[in-house]
Structure formats: structure tokens, C-alpha cells
User: What shape does this take?
Amino acid sequence: MSAPTGTVTTALGDRAAAALGPVLPHEHLFINLMRERRGDGLVSDEVLVTEEIAAWALLGGSAIFDLTTAELTPGSVPGGTATETGWTRAPSNVAAVQRVSKATGVDVVLGTGHYRDPFIDRDRMDRYGVDAIADEIVRDLDEGFPDTDARAGIIGEIGADAWYVSTTEERSLRAAARAGLRTGAAVYTHAARWRVGLEQLRLLREEGVDPARIAIGHCDTVLEDGYALEIARHGAYVGVDTVNSRNPRVVAWTVRLVLELVRAGHLDRILLSHDVCATSHLQAFGGNGFAFVGGDLRAALLDAGLDAEAFGRITVTNPARLAAR
Assistant: This one.
């Protein structure tokens, strides 16, 4: 497959896609998951996040996709979300991400769109409708987040909470699809534990989105043989992107899944990341942080037979091609 062309929009401006370097394509710098994770669901310590991102930079990492959609961004009020600031990223969140990017030298691609149930405001989604929601996503991508000097670079993460797509989530997915078609931005989904990624893919394709502009997230959490291969056969990217545990069984499953995809001819459809979304995922609290994929997981994959050039294509070429416009 050809090298990435075009540009990638980061929090600090556009970058040539071919020069983006090693990428973690599904992460969260600051996030508010307190609705579901009262114990560790708020990541808001800027000093700590900067230190953790720096660990990725020390391994040669140069970019991160921050897929923290509107409902998940910590707002300017304690415990608040972007909803208080106009149903998009809070300006304070964008500014914090920009400071971390400048301090570490790691480019950050900002996501836009709406997450999933039970976080989405169902009443607002009903009142505004698909096209009006798409207009807001397009604004974030083309004009920028309100009251900031930064534009979104990708749509996501958006998705489904269960084994089906709810009516509210369907509106969100269709709005994302329409925004993607208007702007050329890729769509990255949340599809954990169940095979709902196939339904997401069907909906997005029904709206006219090229599968090559779609990444189905968290395929590694669906412990069914053949699921990830089916996503790849449809031409979408496969998110092996929930590597936030160093449990030997988790690592072994991840290695097996990556090698299975490579041997089936889908090297150019794999995305590797951690999905850091809780304090317990940070290195400071015993988690993998942002450095496991480029360190221990890379070593495990190479020991299992993946060559270094293939790992580079997975972590450099694939995400750059996905995000390029």
C-alpha cells in the first residue's frame, strides 16, 4: 500500500502525513469517565500527563490521537464536561492539550463528535437531528473548536455501549459519517466487548463512507476468533487499541491477534494503542501508560516473529494514512 500523502491536523497546526512519525492512534490525555468509573475515571493532572507522554517521546514516539469526544472532555468547572461549553471540546481542554504537546514535542490530533450511551444527551440529539449535529462536527474540523485556535483532525471516538447500536448512537454515527464525507476526515469508533463494530461499519458504509476512512476500535476486546479478520476484510482499520494491561494473557492475545492479521494479509489495516482513559492506566499508578506499545509489546511482537519494518508500518504508516486529508 502506498505511503501516506496530504496533511494531518494537530492541536498545533497541520503536519505532513509522511513526516508524522510513530503514532499512538487511540488515547486520551485528559478525560472524565466519572459517570461510569467513580474511582479512577478522571484524568486531569497536567503535570502527571506531561510526564507520562514524555515517556512515549523517549521511545521515539512523535504523535498521539486524542479521541476524547465532547462528553468526555473535562470542562472548566470541577467534574464538568464539554457539554457546558457548547457540546464540543471545552476551550480549557484544548489549551491543556496544546501545553502538553509543546512541552513534550509530541503532536496531538484532536478528535470530535459524540461518544456513546449513556454519555450522549439523548434529548439534544433528538431535537437537533443528524444534519445539525454533522454541522457542528464539520465546524470543529474546518473552522476549529469555539474559543480556541485549534481544529479537530479526526472524528471519534464515537460508538455503541452494548451489543447493538441504540437510536441515539445511530444518529451520532450517521452525523459522523456525513461530516466525514464533507471534510474528508476519518471516523474512529468505540466497539468494545461485542461484535457491534460490524453494525457500525454497516451504518457508516450505508451513509457512503469508504471503509478505508473507518477505524473500528477495541477489536482486541472482542474475544471471538475471526471478528477482527472480518473487519479487515471489509477494508476498515482494526483497532488493537486497548493494550492498557500487562497481564500475560492479555499480551499473549494481543500478539496472537496482530500476527493473525498480518499472516492473513492485513498488515496495513492494524492500529496499535493503549486507550489510556483512567488514572489506573497511567504508569504512576501501576498501569502501562503510553510507553508499553513502543516498549514491551514491540519486544513481544518481534520475539513472536513480527519484523521491525512491519511494526513500523503499523505504528507509523497506518495511522498517518488514516488521519491524512
Notes: The CA atoms of residues 162 and 260 lie 26 Å apart.
